[in-house]
Structures are given as structure tokens and as C-alpha cells.
Amino acid sequence: MSRRGLVLFVAMCVIWGIPYLLIKVALRGFGPVDLVFVRFALGAVLLVPIALSRRVKVGPLLGRWGWIVAYTVIEMGIPWVLLSDAELHISSSLSGLLVSTVPLIGVVIGVLTGTGEHHGWRRILGLAIGLVGAGVLVGFDVSSSTFGAIAEVLVVAICYATGPYIINRKLSDLPALGVIASSLLLAAIAYAPAAIIQLPHAWPSGQAIAAVVALGVVCTALAFLIFFALISEIGPVRATVITYVNPAVAVTLGVLLLHERLTAGIVVGFVLILSGSVLAARAAPPKT
Fold first, then answer.
1. Which of 5, 21, 31, 167 could join 253 in a cystine, given CB atoms 3.0 to 4.6 angstroms apart?
2. How is the chain split into domains, by residue range?
3. Which H, E and C letters describe 34-88, residue by residue?
4. Radius of gyration of the chain from its Cα atoms, rounded to whole angstroms
């Protein structure tokens, strides 16, 4: 991995490790639908003008509107509201760790479609170890009261693994900034009616508002700009390996700032997931 790729990788590990904490805080004043609407709207307000200032052509985007809508629904529309709803019932640490199954799902999608990158034995082993870690995590922490929320987060992981595939196979020739700005704008418009109906009855706290703003500005607008640069640098499958490191941030912040319980399942799953990350991120040695 190049130095630029490493910098982008570390930045994304941090930026997409903190949303779980921010969602938990934002839910103290917003409902899941309101939360994601504000996040979409802030992202669109920031990225659409940037896209226009860089003279991103609208014509090619309109010509691929069907795939842009599909990407919007799968990468944002479904998973963001499901993740927010799930965090009403489970900890931010658990939700962050469950999303770490994204790289494995990405590999499965590549195998099923015949479009996957070459995977050396180290990377396959790393992905398998990460999956075992996620299994240990669920085995320790699942209950009848949290089963639905855990299922929601697993659907989120499937969506997150599918989104980069759509970008890579169907939208890679379009400007990434134009695609993401269009997606955020479409999502904001789609969620606006429901968000208006479900407006909070009381003015949210300063902490909740700050959390939503951070989600929209840092974890959405800035994050997508960096993420597309990362995909361009190291490829879509290896880029999703950030979801093995994101849990480190999610667990640390959840335990330290939200006083979430550090269970045996989280500890064991955490170690396995990070071990898998080291192997999965390592490029296969060149053939001689």
C-alpha cells in the first residue's frame, strides 16, 4: 500500500469509526428518520455546490440515473435508517463490530459475480478470521430483545458491501463527486416528507444537534470524498477492509464516552476481527 493509500486508509478508519457514537448521541433528540434526513441534507448542501464549482457534467449523470438511484437506495437510503433504528436497541460498540462483516460479504459478491479481485491465501484467511470474530460477537451478545436490531445491522453490512460494487462496475466512469452529491440530494428529497411528519416534539439538546451536524459534515460529505479517493488508490474490496478497523474506534468511544459494557464477546470478537484485518489488508506476494 502506498503512503497516500495508507493516509487515506487511516483517515477513513477514524472517520467511519465515530458515526456509531454520534448516532447514539443524536438519537437522544432525533428519531431515526429525522436523523438520516438531516445527515443527507447537510451532505447535499456541502457537496452539490462543490460538484457544480468543479463543473461536473449533469448529462452523463442523468444518462445513468437508474444506477445512481440504485446506489443511493443500497448505500444510503436503506442502511442509514436501519443502523439508526438498530442503535435504539443495541450498543454503538456492537453495531460497529457487526458492520465489520462487510469485507467478507464483498468477497462473496465478487466470487458470485465473477468480478472479484485476486485474493491470496492470507487475505482469505484474514477475512475468515474476521467472520469468526463476528460470529463470536453475535453468539455472546444476541438475545430475543436484540435479535431484530442485530438483523438490521447485518442488512446494513450487506448494503455497504454492495454499494462499492455498483460504483466499480456501473458508475466508475462517472465523476465520483457528482455521483455522491446526486445520491445525497436524492436521498434528502426522498426522506423529507417522512422527516417533516416525524419532527421532534421538543427542541433537541445541543449535544444531539452537534452530533447530527458532525454526521453530516465529517462522516458524510468529507468521508465520501476521502472514501472514493481510497477506492481509486487501493481498489473497492481492499477499501472495505477499513470496516475491520472501524470497530476499534467504535468500541473505544462507546466504552469510554458512553460507558457501554465491555463484554467477553466484544473482547474476543474484537481481537479476532483486528487479527483478520491485518491479514486481509496485506497484499498477496507476487508470483515468481
1. 21
2. 3-280
3. HHHHHHHHHHHHHHHHHHHHCCCCHHHHHHCHHHHHHHHHHHHHHHHHHHHHHCC
4. 18
